[in-house]
Amino acid sequence: MDYSDQRRKRKRILRESYSSSHSPLSVRSLLICFSFLTFLYLLSYTSHFPASAFRPVLVVSNLSLLSSSNSRTVKALQVFDGLSQPLKIENRVFFPDHVLLLVSGGKKNQELECVYYGKPGKFRKGNFDFGKKKVLSVDEYDGLSSIVRCPLPSVNYSSVVSLKLGKNGILGEKNGFLVRNQTVNSWENVAYAAALDGDTVVVFVKGLNLRAGRESDPSPFSCHFGLGKLGKNGTKYMMSTKALTAAQEVVRCPLPKSISKNLDKAQGVRVTVGLTPRVHPRSHDRVLMPSVAKIFDLGSDSKKRNDEKYELCVCTMVWNQASAIREWIMYHSWLGVEKWFIYDNNSDDRIDEVIQELHRENYNVTRHVWPWIKTQEAGFSHCALRAKDECNWVSFMDVDEYFYFPYSTPRHQLFRTLGYAPQNSLCALVANFSSSSSNIGEIRTSCHSFGPSGLNSPPPQGVTVGYTCRLQSPERHKSIVRPDALDSTLLNVVHHFHLRKGFNYLNLPQSTAVINHYKYQVWEVFRAKFYRRVATYVADWQENQNEGSRDRAPGLGTEAIEPPDWPQKFCEVWDTGLRDFVLANLADVSTGLLPWERISGLTG
């Protein structure tokens, strides 16, 4: 074959090869398509989502399966209101009886499990043991995140608790490693909340160790603001301002100019408090407090911000008061309370369901999750900010405290009408001060402490009817305040607030009104006080401190052991005034039942 024939043969082979490779139905193309379809089929089979995944549930992102036979990493997204948001653990706080996880992008879900890693070795699967426990509870929190409460880790397990959802895997783990923020904050040393107030921010922080009941020098303190997403090494604080006030656990600072010009930017901004040492202070010596706080605009969830305010509201902080709160709200609503702010301090007795039921019955009750223990004073300051746009007056009281108006005689007509107090009488009393005494910023009412009154079990008709014997002399007082009259420090000692210059307080005569404080109830109710006190500066019952204080039961000691004469204790004066008033005014005329009996089943 000559050279020209060989050349023509090579060109023919090349043309055939070229046409074959560009044919739309070539063997190679068919193989590629077949392989791709097979891959899709296998992917749909192995990544099958159950029906529950398409309900509004809490799910996790970047999840690695907890299976020895399958270490494949998958990514699940939350499906809620048509939006897909990845879930992540942003912060952990270690409490005496649980670990609190602050989680973004999630809602309540019963399928979550808490995951614990053994201390030895690195954070890598296979190198050490891990354990799982059921979640204690899940709650929505502050409109920006959710909280998940996990049991404390067992011995030899790390406090870096993670989460697992069903069979999907562990949150924050990638290719066997824990990623993102692994910091665990102590509840005793952390900035835990922040609220917008005009062009300032109020930061709530534990660990400053400021004196109780006094305003402190704000000059050593500053606020630091972090923008952007949380990084692997935590928040990077880009801006700072000097503190305006500091008192107890509350620090107030101006907003940076770039934020104050557009307050919408403040929502969700991370913030903490800085402290400059008093001895040889230098700027680079400033210590930043650990923080889980984000700025929240408390006015953003107010439904009456631009409308006429409620005349009288009530704020309280509770722990496991589901059995008591119905009577307390129904009674005071009869007296004219129009709005309720319930700060729930880690209750686990389904009080949220009771509050929802009251709301369905047209009682204006809102529950606000407040997971921070030993912070009642700070919580009341927080509630005062929340109520400022909605309420002319706010009463700060506990669920075992009841306003009572004794029978009024002609010489007691200064603040109310003759005879028995009519419906809405408490609201009318504060409204009278609103219109006639613009310099009155706080109304104080004396408290009478009632004892078990000879009972051994909770009274079936409620505390107002069942407990009728008390101590002779009043103990302390409780206050109704005007939020706009409070000092900028928001300083309070639970029983009363500090007022701005130009405002005064008024002590109501006991002939006008008193508070029946059902402080010493039957033992099965009273012993719950030994668990923990909510006030910051009041010693817990089991602590050997201030045993003679009026904040404790005289002679009881520090152990939850019932004294043999408990039913007869704290009984010096028999006082049936409120019992008679309740039975005469609130009982159903046909059945004799009280409002809280008909619903709660106390008659059974």
Automatic annotation (TrEMBL):
Which organism is the protein's source? Answer: Rehmannia glutinosa
Transmembrane portions of the chain: 21-43
Stated name of the protein: Glycosyltransferase family 92 protein
- Localization of this protein: Membrane
* Alphabetically ordered keywords of this record: Glycosyltransferase, Membrane, Transferase, Transmembrane, Transmembrane helix
Q: Which family does it belong to?
A: Belongs to the glycosyltransferase 92 family.
Q: What is its main location?
A: membrane
Q: What is its EC number?
A: 2.4.1.-
Q: Name one Pfam family in it.
A: Glyco_transf_92
Q: How does it sit in the membrane?
A: Single-pass membrane protein
